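Hey team,

Sharing the Probable membrane transporter protein run so nobody has to redo it. Sequence (123 residues) first:
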Amino acid sequence: MEGIGVWDVLAVLLSACIGAMGLGGGGVLILYLTLVKNMPQLASQGVNLLFFLPCAVTAVIIYARRGLLRWKTVLPMAAGGALGVGAGSLFLQNVSSRALTVGFACLMIAAGLFTVFRREKAQ
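Structure output:
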């Protein structure tokens, strides 16, 4: 097992800072795993989901206990998400790792451009 390097520390710090701002550090985690650790794109996204799920479950429990969830909205969205996961899994069985990487890169660039250039709505 190799030691912790500078890139490892920077990835943790950057992900924590981005996550603390509410922007989601998962994108940084995927970039780090694919570019620095040479992990395949699909495996990187799987690891990202493994990090996300415990946080999501904890948040749902806390918000539900506080009565802050609108179940008439949450349940249809959860069902749609489950259908999306199933469809995505079937789709990914026929997509190359390279195509997935390029698609993810385009998504990250588009999200970044949207964040930088979006206009705030007037109050």
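The chain has a mean pLDDT of 84.

Ping me if you want the raw files.
A.
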